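lol forgot to send this yesterday, sorry. C-alpha cells for the thing we talked abt
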C-alpha cells in the first residue's frame, strides 16, 4: 500500500515539473483599447489568481468578449499529454464584453 502511494506521488510530482505552455502575452495584446498600465495590471492580477490554485497554475486564455479567463495546465512529456482548466469571470468593472466601457 505504501509503495503504491509512493509511486503515485512520484508520478504526479514528475508530471507537475514538465515544460509548460507558452506565455499568454499574445492573448492580452487583443486588449488594445486598454492603456498599457491597465493591461499590465490586469495581467498581473490574473496570473496571481491562477497561481492561487495548486492544480491550475497558469493563465491560459483571456476571452474579453465573454468577460472570462481560464487558468489551467498543459503537460506533454513525449508519451502522455494532458490538459486541464477552469474558466473564471472577470471582476466587475473590468472593461470587457459588448460595452468595453
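and heres what i got for the seq, position by position
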Amino acid at each position: 500500500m505504501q509503495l503504491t502511494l509512493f509511486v503515485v506521488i512520484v508520478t504526479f510530482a514528475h508530471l507537475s515539473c514538465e515544460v509548460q505552455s507558452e506565455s499568454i502575452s499574445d492573448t492580452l495584446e487583443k486588449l488594445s483599447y486598454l492603456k498599457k498600465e491597465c493591461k499590465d495590471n490586469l495581467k498581473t492580477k490574473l496570473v496571481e489568481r491562477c497561481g492561487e490554485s495548486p492544480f491550475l497554475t497558469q493563465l491560459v486564455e483571456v476571452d474579453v468578449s465573454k468577460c472570462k479567463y481560464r487558468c489551467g495546465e498543459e503537460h506533454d512529456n513525449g508519451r502522455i499529454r494532458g490538459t486541464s482548466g477552469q474558466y473564471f469571470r472577470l471582476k466587475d468593472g473590468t472593461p470587457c464584453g459588448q460595452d468595453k466601457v
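The beta strands are 58-63, 68-76, 81-89. anyway ping me if u want another try
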